Amino acid sequence: MDNIRKFEEIIGYTFKKKQLIRQALSHSSYSNERKHPDGSNERLEFLGDSVLSVVVSDFLYKNLNVAEGQLTKIRASLVCEKSLHVFAKKIHLGDFLLLGKGEENTGGRQRPSILADAFEAVIAAIYLDGGMQAAAKHILRFMPEDIIHAAHPVFSDFKTVLQEVVQKNPEEKVEYVLIGEEGPDHNKRFVVEVCLNSQVIGKGSGRSKKEAEQFAAKEALELMGYEAQ
Question: Is the pTM of this model over 0.90?
């Protein structure tokens, strides 16, 4: 129960029905080995996958005005195993999993597929315990940067466009300067300024230096009167 309380603190949700979160954290290897009455998290994973898809689809539809094909690609990038593995690590989900001895001894707590499945199971547990609103709050609280990042991809090479604009005046020189880094190593954001002849004309941030430079160039283009898309 102490582990469950710690996990509830991390995710910001307190379960009324504790058996739901216990089941969500129980891998099939554990439930089969212990013959646990609540069973494994496999059925919850099935439900959580659908809840996650609905919440992400709703968010993207309301916040991103792009074609259906682009929405589908963005949603797929957010609900794939690779992304769910990253999300699971952010809430230290592996530390709270209930695993059988075999999975425990072969690194199951770090296995991407196990963590991704458990992440979906936790979503389902919250949905069953507190409804769709609680599940959506959980998803959007712990994945905002990833959702926003995926919902606003760099559609154009703004650096190249800016360079082409500046080259019309041969004496002009563009330089990108890293001015800061924010956040932990697994979720770091970089802040870059773009300078024209040492004068700051744009600023951007991103999950990599290159992305930050692109957004700095985008801001510069907009300030110069060019429509950056």
Answer: no
